[in-house]
Every structure is written in C-alpha cells, then in structure tokens.
Amino acid sequence: MEEVLLEVRGVSLAFGGVRALTEVSFDVRSHEVRAIIGPNGAGKSSLLNVLNGVYHPQQGTIRFGAREFRDMDPHRAAALGIARTFQNIALFKGMTVLDNIMTGRNLKMRCNFLQQALWLGPARREELRHRRAAEEIIDFLEIQHIRRTPVGRLPYGLQKRVELGRALAAEPRLLLLDEPMAGMNLEEKRDMCRFVLDVNDQFGTAIVLIEHDMGVVMDISDRVVVLDYGRKIADDVPDQIKKSQAVIDAYLGVAH
Amino acid sequence: MGSYFTGFMQESSRSRGGGTLDTFPKLLMRHAQERGARPAIREKDLGIWQTWTWRQFADEVRALAAALSAEGFRRGEHLALIGDNRPRIYAGICAAQCLGGIPVPLYQDAVAGEMVFPIQSAEIAYALAEDQEQVDKLLEILPQCPSLRRIYYDDARGLRHYDQPQLMSCEKLLELGRGSATRNPGFVDEEIAKGRGSDTAAMFFTSGTTGVPKGVVLTHHALIDRSQVVAEMEKLGQDDVVLAFMPPAWIGQNIFSYAQPMVTGYCICCPESGETVVNDMREIAPTYYFAPPRVFEALLTQVSVRMEDAGALKRWLYKHFMGVAKRVGTRILEGRRINFLDRIKYGVGDLVVYGPLRNVLGMSKVRIAYTGGEAIGPDLFSFYRSLGINLKQLYGSTETSVFVCVQPDGQAKSDTVGPAVPGVELKFTPERELLIRSPGLFKEYYKNPDATREAKDAEGWFRTGDAGYVDHDGHLRIIDRAKDVGKLADGTLFAPKYLENKLKFFPYIKEAVVFGAGRDRVCAFVNIDMDAVSNWAEKRNLAYSGYTDLAQHDAVYALVGDCIAQANADLAREPELAGSQIHRFLILHKELDADDGELTRTRKVRRRFLAEKYGTLVDGLYSNQETVHVEAQVRYEDGRTGVYSADLKIRDAKSFTPAAAKSAA
Amino acid sequence: MLYREAGQFKSSYAEDQQIFPIRQDRIGIALLLVVAFAVVPLVGNQYWLGALITPFLIFALAALGLNILTGYAGQLSLGTAAFMAVGAFMAYNFVLRMPWLGVIPSFILAGLCAAAVGIVFGLPSLRIKGFYLAVATLACQFFVLWALQKFGWFTNYSSSGVVTAQRIEIFGYAFVTPAQKYLLTLVIVAVMALAAKNLMRSETGRAFMAVRDMDVAASVIGIPMMKTKLLAFAISSFYCGVAGALHAFCYLGTVEPEAYSLDLSFRILFMVIIGGAGSILGSFLGAAFITLFPIFLNLASGWLHVVTGIEISHATLSNLELIIFGGLIIFFLIVEPAGLARLWQITKEKLRLWPFPH
Amino acid sequence: MQLAFFIEVLAGGLLAGVMYALVALGFVLIYKASGVFNFAQGAMVFFAALTYVSLAERGWNLWLALVVTLVVMIVLGVATERIVLRPLVNQPQITLFMATIGLTFVLEGLSQLIWGSQPHGLELGIPDVPMEWLSQKWNINISQFDLFAAFVAGVLVAVLGVFFQKTRIGRALRAVADDHQAALAVGIPLQHIWAIVWAVAGFVALVAGLMWGVRNGVQFALTFVALKALPVLLIGGFESIPGAILGGLIIGATEKLAEVYVGPMVGGGIESWFAYVVALLFLLVRPEGLFGEKHIDRV
Questions:
Q1: CB–CB of A202 and B47 under 8 A?
Q2: Do residues C194 and C188 lie in contact, with contact meaning Cβ atoms separated by under 8 Å?
Q3: Contacts C319 to D, Cβ<8 Å
Q4: Average of per-residue pLDDT values in chain D
Q5: ipTM over 0.85
Q6: B214-219 and B200-206 as β-strands: parallel, antiparallel, unpaired?
Q7: Of C17, C199, C213, the CB nearest to A92
Q8: By the 8 A CB rule, do B535 and B305 touch?
Q9: Looking at residues A139-159, what average pLDDT do you find?
Q10: Three-state DSSP class for C329?
Q11: N or C: which end of chain D has fewer CB within 10 A?
Q12: By the 8 A CB rule, do B423 and B417 touch?
C-alpha cells in the first residue's frame, strides 16, 4: 500500500448560487493513475481547478504530502509539484513547441533577468541545461520533427501532446489531465495512453485524469472516482465501478 | 583537396605497412591514436549532433569487448546486431571483432519470423538490440531459438518491467566491461593483436530473391582490401562525411558506414529518425553518398512534385534552367569544353536553381555519389549529374564485398556500371553469365558447402548469376539475372529485368513484372507510382478513393499504355531485344509489398512467387479477354485488412516493327 | 536562394541557441554593424545624421521598449511618451544636480526613474486587462506631463518650462557633432537591443509571452503574474526612459514637456504595429518606416511641384500626412497584422527553401 | 454661503458629467455592438461639429445643415464599417482598436483638410449664462445651457433606450452585444448591424459635438473631449449605457470638486488627469466596473 500523496476532504465549491461541488472527499496515492469520471457538468473540471488553485472552494481542505491547505493558489500548487493540462488546450499559441516546454520549467530556473539580459555565464549555462531537459521530453513524446514549429500551427492531437510535454517539463509529483484524449482518433488515443502510462511508470508520477472514454479509463486507471451533480457517488477500482448501480444510473440519467 | 590527398597518403602508406593493420579493430585503434580528437560518429539525438570522437568510440568498443568476454563471448562466436544506424550497433560490431567473434547484423525492419533462420543456423547466443521493438521480436522467437542466451538493449525505454533473465541494458554491460577492463587492462588489446586478416570479419545474410537466406562469410582482408582500393581511387580521407540511413545489415550500407570509415577515418552520421532523414541530410551535407536508384528516384519525384506547387516564376526558372542543364550540365561536370554562352547560362542556372536545389537536397558538398544494386534510369541519372552532382554507378554484391566495378570520374554512363576496379578479373560463360575473381570475394556460405561450391569454383571464380557483357570502352553492362534471361516460344531473347527496368524508369510506373519465358509474347503487371500518378490525376481532377481505385482508371491505363509504347519503341531499336516488346499489360490492384513476400527486403520483385500468387492474372494476360477477376487480401492505410474483389482491366500496348521504331522515335 | 544552409549542423546546444543560428545571417548582421559604425558616420552629412538616423535609432529604442511591454508581454500601453519624458527630464536633472555622476550613469538612473514610474502605473494591470488597462495608462501620460509642467524643480524653474540638455562629456571626451552623438546613440541602442534579445530568448521573455498568450495557463505552470507584469512594465519603461534621455541629449537638445505628448505615444505605438509586435527587428523596421515616411512625403510633394507645378501648402501637407498615415495604419492592420518583421520572416523562409515553395 | 457654493460646484460638475456621458455614449454603443473600442469617437465629434458649423457659416439653414451633417455622419459610419471593420473581422480586439486610432488620424486630417483648421464659435440660441432666479434666490450660478445640454442628453438616452428596447434593429443590436451567433439568428447580417451602430454613433457624436462646440468653440481641441470620456468608461464599463451616464456624473462631480477644493493646493490644472486617477482608484476596488458582473475564467 503506497502512501497517500494528495487528500481532499469535504470540498464544496459554488459560483454565486450555483453549487459546483458538494462535500467531495477523495485521495490520490503516489504512483497511481486515478480517474475522475461523471456525466457532463458533474463538476470534474471544477475539481481539478480546485486541486491546482484556479478555483477556491468555500469549504474543505486539501492535503498535499505533509502539508494541509484551506485552498490552493496556482503558483503554490505548481511549486508543490502539481502540473496539469487543460480540457480545451491552453498552450502558448505564439511560441514554438520547444519554448512551450521550456516555459514549463520556469520554476526550476534561478537566474534573474539581469543575468539573462547580459547573457552571463550562469544564465547561459542554466538555459542550456534546461534545453537538454526539454529535449529529453521532446524525445520522450516523439515530437522531434515539430520542435521549432509554433504550436498554433499544429494539428489538435499534437497540441495535446505538446501540452502534456509542458506539464511534464515541471517534473511534477502529481499530474492532472483534463480529458487528455478528447477529440482524438483511435491511433492518437493509443499513443496518448502509452505516454500517460510511460510517464506514470518512468517517472513514478501520480496521475489524475478526467476522461469520457470508458474503455480508456478502465484500461489505464488504478482507481476511479465518479462524480454526479457535484457529489461523489462512487470511488473504487475499475471492475467494481463497472458493476456499481449508482454509476450506471448516473450515466443513464435516472432522476434524482 | 589537399586534405583528401594527405588522407589518401596515410591510407596508402598504411596499406603498404601491410600486415600490421589487417583487421578492423587494429584500424580503429590506429585512428584512436592518429586522429583521436576527430569525429568518428555523429548521431542526431536530443536535437543536436552528439559527436563521438575516434578515441571515445575506441574506448566504448574496448569496454564492450571486455564486457562481452566477461559475459562468456568467445573467439569464433556470433553476435547478432539488430537496429537502425546507431553508434552502439557499430561499436558492437567492432567489439565482437576485437574478440575474434563474428558480428551478424540483421535487418531491423524484418519481422520476427525472418530472424529465426540466421539465429538458428549460426546458433547465435548473444544479441545486441536497439530498443523495445527489437527486443520484443527476439523474445517472441526465443522458443525457436534456444541458443539465444543474452539480449543486450541500447534504449531502455519501456523495458523496465521486462524481467526475462536474458535481458541486460547496454549501460549495465558497459559498467561490467569497464570493471573487468580495470581488473585486467591489457586483455582486449591482446585479443585484438591475436586477430588476423584471414579471420572472418562479419557475416551478412542475403535476403535472397528465392529460397532460404544464405549467410555470406567475409574476411577482414576481403572487406579492408576492397574498401582500401576504392578509397585510394576516390581519394577518400578523414575529412569526408557519410550519412548512414540504410539498414546496417545491408552490406551496401555497412561497407560505407563501417568498413570504409575504418580504413580511411572519415566520419559517419546517423539521422535522428526516419521522418527527419531529409532534414538531417541537409544539416550534415555529406561529401560521399551511396543510395540505391529508388532513393534517387523518390528524391526526384519529390522535387518535381514540390516544383509543381511553386509559383509561375519559379516553375519557369526551373523548367528553363533544367533544360540548360540537360544540354550542357553533364559535359561541364566531366570538364569537357562547351561554348562560352552556355557556360554563362549554366553559371546563372547554378546560382538560381542548381545550387539551391543541391542545397535543399543536402547534396551541396557531395564529391562522390554512388548508386548501384539495380539499374538506374537514364533521365534519373542525368538529372543528378546535370545538377553538378558527381553521381556514378558501381557494381557488386555481398559476395564480392561490393566493389567489383566502379565508374571513374568523367566516365559515368547510365547503362553501364563501369570498368573493373583494380584487382578484379571478369569473364563470361557462353550463356553470358558473369564470373568474377577478386581479393574481395567471400570465404563461403555459412554451413552451406553445396551452395558455396555451386557459387565459387576451384580457381576462385564466383558465379554472379548476372548476365551481361563488356562494351567497347571496357565498361561492364548488365542485362539481367542469368537464370531469368530466357527465350520466348520462338526463341528470341527475353530479359525480364531489363524490360522491367525500362518500364520502371517512367516516373508513373513504380514496379513492373514481365512474363514471357517460353510464351509467344511478353506481357506485364504494373504498379503505378502513387505520388506521381495521384498528382497527375489531381491536375486532371480525376476523383479516386485510393490506390486500388486510381489504378483501375481508364485514363491511368492510357497513361501507362503510352509509357509502354515508348519503351517498346526503344526496344525495337535494339536488335537482339526487338522481339521482346510488351504486348499486353494490367495494373495490379495493390502495391507490391515486402511484407507480403512479393518483394525482397531490398525491394527486388520475386517474379516466380508472383507468377504463382497471381496465376489467374497471368492466364488472363495470355487469354484474349478484356478483364480478369481478382479476389485478394488487401491491407488498407489504417492497417485493417479486407478482401478486395474486382475485375482488373487488361489492355494491349502499341508495339513497333524495328523499322517503324525509327519513325516513332 | 541566398541561404545555403547545407552543412551547417549544430553539435552543441550553445551553437543551436545562438541568436543567429544561420551563418548567412551572422555575416549579414556583421556587415550591417560595420556599415553602421564605420561607413555611416563618414558619409552621413549633418542633416542625415542629426535629423534622420539618430532620431530613427532613438525611436527604435523607444519602440523596442513598448514592444517588450505590448508585443511580448501583451500589456497595451498608451503612455510611452510619458516614460520618455521622465527619462529626458530626470537625465537633465541628474546631470544638473550631480555632475560628478557622468552622463551614462545619469542616463541609467533616469531610465531607472522611468522604470519606477512604470511600475507604479503598471499596478492596475494586476486587476484590469485590455482596453481598461490601455485607458489606465493614459492616466500616466497626462499625470506625468502635468507634474513636469507644474513642479518647477523638474525644469530647474525655467520660466518657459523649456530646458536645454547639457553637453555630453564621457571621460573628458565631448560628443557635440551630429556624428559623435550618432555614434553614442548607436552604441547605447545596439547594446540595449542585444540585451533585449537575450532577455526575450530566456526565461523572462518566455514568461512574458506566456502571460500574453494565455495568462491562466501561465499562472498554473507557476509563473508569478504580479512579478512578471510589473517586470515587463519596469523593463519597458527603462528602455523608454533611456530613449527619452537620448531624445533630449542627442536629438532635440532643448526639450519641453509638450514634446512628449500623447501624439508621440501613438507614433511609437504605430512603430510597433507597423514594424511587428513581438519582434526586436520589428521595432527597428517600424521606427525606420515612420521616421522616414514624412521625409518621403515632403520629397514627393516636392517632385509633384516640379512635375505638375502644383504647390501644396504646409497646412495641407501636414493634414495629408495625417490622413495617409492613418490610412497606412489601417492598411497594414488589414494586409499584415504581424507587421514588416513578419514580411521579412516570410521572405527569408522562401529564400531558405528556394526553389521549393514550402 | 459655503454650502451654496458647494452645491453650485456640485451641480456644475454633474452637468459637466452629463456632457462627458454624451461622448461616452458613442463609445459604449459601438463597443456593445461590435466589441470595438472606437478611439476615433473624439475625432467623430470634432468632425461632426466642424461640418455643421462650416455649413452653417456658409449661410445654410440651420436645420438643413443639421440634416446634411447627420447624413454625412451616417455615410461616414457605413464607410468605416465597409473599409475598416469588415476586412478586420475576427481579428483580435486590440487590432481593431489600433485601426480606430488610424481612423482618428484620417478623420482629423480630413476634417481640417476640408474645412480648414481655424476655430469657430457655435451658437444654438441658448445663452450660456446663469439662470437669474437661481442665482438671485440662492446665489447659485448654473448655466442655462448646461441644463439644456443635460436635457438633450436625457432625451438622447431616452431615444436610444426606446431604439434598443422597441425596434427590431435595436433588439438585434442587443443580441449582437450578447453574442454574434445570436445576432445571425435575428436575421440581420452582422455587417448591417455594425454599419447601423456606427451611424448611430455618428449621430451621437453630432449631438455631443454641438453641445461641446457651444461650450468650448469648435476647434481641434474638441477631439480631446474623447479623452475626457475614457475615465467615464473605466467606471461605467464599456458595455453599459446606464454605466456611461452614472460614470459621467461621478467623474464630472468629483473632477469639479477636486478642481475647486484640491486644485489650488497643487497649483491647479489637475483636471487633465484627476478623472483618470479617480477611475483607477475605483477600478482597484471594483475591477468589473459599476455594472459589469464578475466573470469566472473557464479552464
């Protein structure tokens, strides 16, 4: 039994009157692949946004590693080692693939802007060191051929891959993937699954992913959380989830 | 030039030095001393050209060798190497040789099944695989190959959870090696010193157009001698650069990316990946280049296709100056005199077209470019030469350590393969089969004395199996495989390969298979070139849903028909071949594919195999029906397979009487 | 066509990351510098140096400053002239009140003052975006000019509010002739342009662009919004400040606050647009275009007079200039929103692939 | 006494604010409908006023001049949509904003090229003098014209209100404001809607031009009233007509008060920037503006 990396307790989130999340609690163990599923508008993305501090819940606590927080803020989350990708790609469109990935390493860079402006030894060396790290990610994701292409010009599937790369660049302990395979064709999905598993395996990164493709979810995740109308209705290993009546109802949309 | 010359001087002096440098490991160690800081291998990895100097390379080889022997690898044992062009693979080859072992490079794109025979026949116990893909294949065939004890892998990606006892990563192996090297330092060098030129250097399995593959055993002496002679002839030196992009298991790659660099000390470069070869070639700009005709053809097709999309001005410039080049380019390349105006024109052309073109093709610095293995089309050949690229033909095979004939500078012709290189003797049997005697000849076919005896007689003459003759200015001219040179029913000479090549020289035709031996006339299968024809179709906005559909278009049939008619016109002009013009043809519903056994790994057509597989089609050709029904498994782009069933059209082709040909031409 | 890159391969990241990875570019820039440093001062006459090339360089520097803020960090500012004003008048005051400082340090300090002002007026960018921010920067424009006019200290209590920049002396060497001033400007501009390039190709620059392209994502990967935005304002204003100092000392000589009106802010903004937002080169192209354009217009009217005998009054000409100017802006935005820099980039790509189209 | 003076100042400020609001309206209209921050609004005001005055001075009938000017402004609006906006559709807002700066230059140049650059006085028959009874009764001086202007502004807003609520086009405009897809559903092509909006903006510019023309005379400086209106937008928001009015009042009042009570301490002239500072402080407290509602970043 691996130790728990992230623990969410009784998180509730509302926008104005609208309740997005109600009393949600769940945990993520280090090195596991954790899936969050649920019908549209079940609050999956909101949950991720709470985890890395884009939204601030009204109630509940988030424990990451040894530290406990009322809520996160994006910068702190990043500093703690939480990286993520977005449902509708949020890459830096004007920048090349390489620059996007390099940007993912910003927290690891120490030199100040003066050193950079004067291109002093430390700044230069730091830049080159991180270039190598970025190249390793490019190699890992097999995107050498588009290294210098502005991401705006890339097809959707590749953009998703680059975004994963940007998240990996931060060498996160916890990786949040918001529908990493949405809108992909079979082949792209297969690749993406491979990459997600390789990441989990190679770097031991814990992964939380939202995904609609049940096949994928059941294949690659160790445990699954099911949300419906902002509440957790199930939390178990895939095989159990498949059987769970509550889940089936939720998906068939049985009246509440 | 100077540096080439000095390079050449060193080589020759060394070769006169004789015995001392008679094996590849010895050569390597010499380079490590003489030019230790110069690049031996570059590999595009992680975005830049990672460079291994000769010293680093030698150290790596030493460590690997030490490790292998620590692993129990002994003199005379075989080491299988499966992978793309990677420094580790070449280091592995040399490491095996250091210990007096025999490297056996296998095709990395072969399916697992094809690896069984070599491994079994040589009872191979050690294998060095590039990555997970290759490892998986080896594990798959493990049951059939109990001899295989150790599998080392270079790239650990995805392999961490493999727990087979046979597996070990190269890192680990190298540690092991460095460890044992420190324990007894002199060991590897002693082993190297034990090596003799007469030892076996490597074994290459010929894919063989028919039957089981044969393991061709080549000695250090054979490979080094041939590499040496040609290196001197072409003044190769340490400043030359080669891009290694063909399978290292093919001697046609291996001789240029292992044997010759070992002799001359030039640098070889390994591309980042399949998709990036073109780009990598441009970055590296090799000075010495070898590729089979199909590569040059693919390049040319790409050029023409891309020029189609260019703006009017560029298209005009291209058309106009390629015209000029066609007229005078080759003559200029051969340094013959041409009038001043043309020289000016060519100069301008070189500024706006040829130069840039060489640049985008990455051939700006090419000093010597070879092609061989198959015949090359005259247009294709002259295209590159007229651009100012010194493209020449060579003739040879695995059994001859490649170099048998090489065209000297200024004597390049598309229909010959040049005179014999020093040390080689040629003669012909009454049936026009070519026999060769050369220091580069192979020792034997591994564990196959019958085949060896059949191929090499007591006086050491090797039966090439090729039919041809030496023309008036001493250049060898190959018509076809001797066994394939047959006769039609009426006894006229029938040289299928020759005909097929004639057809393949048309940009629209990718593959052709002709039949006729013992029949009354010649007929042909044709594969259209998807790139060229689809482009052609788009311009006439022909609608089609894929290869199979496009192939059956009447317009396409007409197009191919014209090509064949032209070929016939040429044939009509060659007395002994006029009788073998092509009368009927059909376009196949699928592209011939090595994975289906229709082509060899080197993409030679397996005519007999095809004749059986598509028997009904052949009958159709020789019947007088207009269509023939076919039902076959086809593999679609997305990898699915399905059954294709349709009627293939059969068409007659215009043929000429020798007289009529004149007017047609 | 001109670019023959075959054989230019990179065997280290240092080579691969250099500013001009292509040899032909390195040669080109070297030639350019030689011309700029050696040829221009020799052949350029008073008018060309004093009234065209020097101001061109100065405006290029200001445009560069604005480009860092607007083009790279995506924060629109209409207060550029104000920052230049701060630079100009503070430089004047530093030289005036601390003569022992020396000119260059005074310029730097003046730039730092501008940076400080920039940070103050950049604060709103933490809460507001887009047009709101643009309008907010107007506050800076107006406030600064007002302050400069109201508080005599800045103009050393000169009754007219006009001040005359002191003569420039560095290590006892005086810069008085246009050629000398040109060289001084050139050195400063070259150095600062290089610094800007280095900055934009390293972490800071990427952070700026990240904020510009997708600020939420930027913060999620740990880029601190406040620091980044304020830094952008500070650096940008520093450049504008130094440009202002040069503007006063190497170009105008005598300056009054009115010289740094909203119009100037717009001129600089146009340089960025026409030159190309998010491009160092663009700043120079844009500046060149906009400084040379009125000259060209004058010449044109001159020819018109010669050819057709039609005399165009000065008032008319200045109005025509306005119209054509505005028209050009619109035209550029429509045909090439990415500006001259992009045009150059496209041409270059074509030359690299020649004879292939793509 | 002090109080009276205070009231006088306050009232004066509020009425001035109405004048600001008048200009701000032009911005809001266009921004609402086409998401364009039309920096050229000031130039349009100047252009309208100058055209009217020049016609009037050439002895035209005032009403005729008014109508002709209106037509000119409408033509201008339509032309702008054709020449500037349509080619730039789907470009980032910032680009469109830049374009309108270009447009500003064109208009400024054009108007002076046509009508010359010398200032004109403008007279609409309402004297810009204090109302006797007010000044006699409480000694509070409030200009008749200011009241008139306020009245006109009120009417204008009312008219616009009706236009937006009742007419089909008006509803279409509101639809566009919400989202462009919806607008298509209304069945009026986007281009037309934009053209109309620009025309209406032109009309508003004309009114504003006349009012301000009377106040400060018709001269190049008139273009700067736009700059006066911007702080109003900061407070009121780019998209809200009530916001524009209320913002105008706030700015007008605070500015006048500051001018009178704070100005002297710092040597006066603060009206050039004070409004902005007020607006900024306001925004720091309430970034979404007066009527704008907080929006959540969807990621």
A1: no
A2: no
A3: 109-110, 112-113, 117
A4: 82
A5: no
A6: antiparallel
A7: C213
A8: yes
A9: 93
A10: helix
A11: N
A12: no
DSSP B83: S
- Would you state the structure tokens that stand for residue D199, as one six-digit string? 């025309």
* Record: fold of C44-353: ABC transporter involved in vitamin B12 uptake, BtuC (1.10.3470)
Whether A234 contacts A246, CB under 8 Å: yes
CATH number of B2-272: 3.40.50.12780
pLDDT of B664 higher than 50: no
Over the stretch B42-55, which tens digit does the pLDDT of each residue have? 999 999 999 999 99
pLDDT tens for residues D31-52? Answer: 887 788 898 999 999 999 999 9
> At D187, is the pLDDT very low, low, confident or very high (cuts 50, 70, 90)?
low
Q: Has residue B18 got a pLDDT over 70?
A: no
B486-664: which CATH architecture? 2-Layer Sandwich (3.30)
Q: Which of C212, C214, C223 sits opposite A106 (nearest CB)?
A: C223
- Residue D36's domain comprises 2-122+145-285
Residue whose token pair is 């086809």: B634
Residues 6+ apart with CB under 8 A from C228: C73, C207, C208, C211, C218
CA distance D96 to chain C (A): 8
Q: Is chain C in touch with chain D: ≥3 Cβ pairs within 8 A?
A: yes
Burial B412-440 (b: 16+ CB within 10 A, else e): bbbebbbbbbeebebebeeebbbbbbbbb
Q: How many CA atoms lie within 13 A of D47 on its CB side?
A: 31
The pLDDT tens digits of the residues spanning A8-26 come to: 999 999 987 888 999 999 9
Distance, in angstroms, between C221 CA and closest chain A CA? 6
Three-state DSSP at B113 gives helix
Beta strands in C89-230 (DSSP E): 163-164, 168-170, 173-175
Average pLDDT over residues B76-94: 96
Could you say which DSSP state residue C50 is in? I
* Interface contact B636, partner A, CB < 8 A: no
pLDDT class of C40 with cuts at 50, 70, 90:
very high
D with B: touching (≥3 Cβ pairs within 8 Å): no
What residue has token string 């880029």?
A: C223
Q: Give the sign of the dihedral formed by CA B259, CA B264, CA B267, CA B269.
A: negative
Q: SS3 letters for D36-69?
A: CCCCCHHHHHHHHHHHHHHHHHCCCCHHHHHHHH
| pLDDT of B11 over the 50 cut | no
- Name residue B285's amino acid: A
Q: Which residues does B202 contact at the CB level (< 8 Å), separation at least 6?
A: B93, B97, B102, B103, B104, B105, B218, B223, B254
Neighbour count for residue A194 (Cβ, 10 Å): 13
What the block records as the tokens of B661 is: 């040909």
The reported pTM is: 0.87
pLDDT at B218 over 60: yes
- For chain D, positions 240-299, list CB contacts with chain C under 8 A: 266-267, 269-270, 272-273, 276-277, 279-280, 283-284, 287, 289, 297, 299
* Closest chain A C-alpha to C213 CA, distance in angstroms: 5
Report the domain count for chain A: 2
Measured distance CA(C144)–CA(B378) in Å, rounded = 78
Chain D residue whose CA is closest to A56: D296
Contact C206 A84 (CB under 8 A): no
Give me the number of domains chain D comprises.
1
Give bridge partners of residue D218 from the DSSP assignment: D120
* pLDDT for res B19: 47
Same structural domain, A76 and A176 = yes
DSSP 8-state code for residue B131:
S
With CB atoms and an 8 Å threshold, state whether C333 touches D98: yes
Own/partner pairs, B565-568, CB within 8 angstroms, 24+ separation: B565/B653, B565/B654, B565/B655, B565/B664, B566/B506, B567/B499, B567/B502, B567/B503, B567/B506, B568/B653, B568/B654, B568/B655, B568/B656, B568/B661
**Cβ neighbours of C205 in A, within 8 Å:** 116
